[in-house]
Design brief:
- The structure is a single chain.
- This protein has 13 helices and six strands.
- By secondary structure, the protein is an alpha+beta fold.
- Among the domains are: about 80 residues, TATA-Binding Protein; about 80 residues, Hypothetical protein, domain 2 (Endonuclease III, domain 1, Orthogonal Bundle), CATH 1.10.340.30.
- It has a six-stranded antiparallel β-sheet.
- Strand 4 and strand 5 form a beta hairpin.
- The longest helix is centred in the middle third of the chain and has 14 residues.
- The radius of gyration is 19 Å and the shape is globular.
- The protein binds a DNA duplex through helix 6, helix 11 and helix 12.
Length: about 270
DNA sequence: CGCCAGGACGCCC
DNA sequence: GGGCGTCATGGC
């Protein structure tokens, strides 16, 4: 990744990033595409850090109104710019199916998101569709002046007072997650460092967190690349292409491989 | 209108 | 330990 400062913007070159593939693939829900003719622009945020970003060409990006210090301290990390995805894809491509998936959407990256925001987001995601997940998270952040509420703020709410979210049966799960994180029963920073099976078990103590949501929190919110969320699409991939199991050589980065496979199978008609 | 959504829970056997 | 109905809401 190369970058340079240009006025109030940061100009970035990174061939292994595509905004549509990375920001709209179901790993993050707060990015909105701004209608435009030939360039792709998104507005979004994680926690309280907002950003407008454009892709002007393959591998070329503008981080609008971004201070160099913010770029270094926040966005290099968030976009995982210090990881070499070309190398990663070369490695994956040893496997025939993964090779196809990587060349199908080579601009996918694993975003390094916040664990708390991911926990709440993926509790909302259960038995839900992406447009409505985005709507619920929109209403949540709107309620806090465009910022994502921390656990202390959300712990002041109850399942009833969260009715404005129209999140259905998930409201009581959100309230329990907020209670457990606020009270310290759940320590997300410590869970992030645990052996993965212990981390899974700790996360599943929260109501509404089962195997799938726990795996998503580990992968998307804790950068545990060995986490491997299995939804209906990935189960389909495993049954069809990996009857003898997922290749061992990719186990450590299976979660990232999963992202390519997920996008590939969903868009293969 | 009915089907389904990046599931989890509770209850059943 | 696996199978199944239920849970709110709304996108398509």
């Amino acid at each position: 990744m190369d970058y340079r400062v240009q006025g109030n913007d940061i100009i970035v070159y990174e061939p292994d990033l595509d905004l549509d593939e990375t920001l709209d693939c179901g790993q993050a829900f707060r990015w909105k595409k701004i209608p435009s003719d030939h360039i792709s622009t998104y507005e979004g945020a994680y926690l309280n850090d907002s950003l407008r970003i454009s892709q002007t060409d393959k591998g070329s990006f503008i981080f609008h109104d971004t201070d160099e210090n913010d770029f270094i301290s926040k966005w290099i990390d968030y976009f995982d710019f210090e990881t070499d995805y070309s190398e990663l894809k070369r490695c994956f491509s040893e496997d025939e199916t993964l090779a196809k998936a990587c060349s199908f959407a080579g601009g996918i990256r694993l975003l390094r998101q916040n664990s708390w925001e991911c926990l709440i987001s993926f509790i909302i995601s259960q038995n839900n569709n992406i447009p409505r997940i985005k709507g619920i998270i929109d209403r949540l952040c709107e309620h806090y002046n465009g910022c994502f509420p921390d656990a202390d703020a959300l712990a002041e709410e109850t399942a009833d007072s969260l009715g404005y979210l129209r999140s259905g049966f998930r409201a009581k799960y959100l309230a329990d997650a907020a209670d457990k994180v606020h009270s310290g029963i759940t320590k997300l920073d410590e869970i992030a460092k645990l052996p993965i099976d212990d981390a899974r078990n700790e996360l599943k103590k929260i109501k509404g967190v089962g195997p799938k949501v726990a795996e998503c929190v580990l992968l998307f919110g804790m950068y545990r690349t060995d986490a491997f969320p299995k939804d209906v699409w990935i189960k389909r991939v495993l049954a069809e292409y990996y009857p003898d199991g997922f290749p061992e050589f990719a186990a450590e980065k299976a979660g990232i491989a999963q992202q390519y496979l997920f996008h590939y199978i969903r868009n293969l008609h």
